[in-house]
Each structure stands twice: as structure tokens, then as C-alpha cells.
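Collaborator request, handled under Task 6.
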Amino acid sequence: MFELRTTIRMKRLLVLLMLAFTATGLLAQPAPYPTKSIRVIVPTVARTPIDHATRIIAREFIEAWGQPVLVDNRAAGDGVAAQGMVANAQPDGHTLLMQSTAFVTLPLFSKLPYDTGRDFTPVARIASSSLALVAHPSLAAASVKELIALARRKPGAVSYASYGNGSLTHLAGDVFGGLAAIRLSHAAQRDVPQALGEVMAGRVQMMFLEIAYALPHVEAGALRALATTGRVRSPLMPGLPTLAESGASGYELALWFGAFAPAGTPAPIVERIAAELARILEAPGMDRRMLEQGFEIAWLPAAEFQRFVRGEAQRLSALVKKAVGSRQ
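C-alpha cells returned to the collaborator:
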């Protein structure tokens, strides 16, 4: 009888343990995601290369997850406002930021109402590109060397447009001026169309511009391309030298973009978004679709992207200090 009662108690204990493990397992399951529409904030006007690339990805998100995906263009304030919206959003993965190199350049030129290192979670790097240095045809310089010589003869007379203080196009001109030991005049504009319009009209002589934007205007003869900003030549303009080849030794600046979430977004959600982005970018034909927007796929998962962002912030900060020091 004693053995029977012991056996019954052991069975009850085993059942309780199994129930406990089952409950623990259920509690440990990650929350379902996504459970509602996803808002992807893009800090540029519509129809920019990053906007087009984001919309390509957004359509794939919809197909995969069956939830609406809203691409929300917020170009005001040089991208500061857009980043602030994401920094203050609920950290549940339903608000994302698609931001470029400006994520690390904005703090170099502006005091921000948030901390880019503390208030965001880098999710994945998606793609990268070079910029093209383009000039109005009236500029009396057909090459970078001629441009440098002109700017040295007439300090401050050559102007370059950017689409906002702290933008990559601002940094590109500032660093170029520093490394080439020339003084350029910065003409900050509200956005890409306005900056491009100023150069096309000849009111500003040149600018650094996304290659996808520049290419049709260069081919039409409305702009003259002088160089690209990358470490190697762009596959979209293989005949165009880099700035480093053309007299600005040590110049290397890439336009990359990636996905960011608010700080505190649960790691399983960050990993799921990153995994879905990886699947999308590996799909047949996606490399061609990205190249049509001027980008080459440059995938990095969350942990590597976080390290990359920290490294870029340090590298570009040092580059700006070097450029400033060379002008003094």
C-alpha cells in the first residue's frame, strides 16, 4: 500500500513538473510580431533613391507578414525630426527608421535633442553607394585637379550645394575642401530637389549627389561629373575616377543606409526584422533592383551593424577634425 501511494505521489509530481515546464515554455515564447501596421520613417522627400529602395523593401514586408506597411517621408529639419519621432516611438518594432550615413554625420554638425548612441537600436545595414561630384557645365573646371586649382586661385568663390547642414552632402564638401586645402562656400538647401535645382540653374556651381540622381542629368549634358567619393569606382560610372585618384588623397566617403528601431526594442523582434531583410535582399533580382536606385547590397546583421555604426561615427569625426585642421 505504501508503495502504491508513493507511486501515485510520484506520478502527480511528474505531472506538475510537466505542467510547470509547459507553462514556462509558453511564457518564454517571443511575442508575435508584427501584430499591426508597420510605419517606416524615411527622412527624405519622396522619390529619392533611399525612398525608392525603402518602398521596394516595404512591398516585400507586406507580402511576407500580411500587415500594412506605411512609408512615411519626413524631410523637415535635415532629418533631425524624423529621427526624433523614432527615438520617442514605442519600442515594439512597429516604427522603424530607414536612415543613411546622416545618422552619424548629423551629430558632427548639430546639437540633437536625442542621443544617437543611446536612443536607437541598429537593426541591419542594407546597401551602400558612392556620391558623384557634379558641376554646372559653366564651371571653369573639367577635372578635380582643375577644380582645386580654381578654388586655390579664388578662395571662397566656388560654392557647393547640400541638402541640409549635417547631411552627407554637407560633410562630403567639407571634407573635400579640407583634404584639398581649399576654401569652398557651403550653400545649404532644404532638400535634394532644391539643392539639385540650384546647381542645374547655375546659381551654385557644384554639389555631391547620389549617383542614381546624377546619372540622367550627366548623360543629358545638364551636369558634368568630375569624380565619385568611394574607395573604388562605381559600377554605374566605371569610367569616372574617385576623388582619391584625382588629387584628394585619402578621400573615401560612402552613402550607406540601414534600418533602425527605438532603443529597448526586444532582441527577438530586432532579429526577426533583420532576418526578413536578409531574406528580401537575397531574393533573385534584388541586387539589380537596388542597383537601379544606385545602391549595391551591403548587408550587415544587427550586431555587426551596431559595431559598424560606432566605427563610422569615430572615423567620420576624425575625418572632419583632420579636414578642419588642414585649413588652419
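The cover message to the collaborator said: "The first helix runs from residue 2 to 28. The radius of gyration is 25 Å. Please let us know whether this matches your experimental observations."
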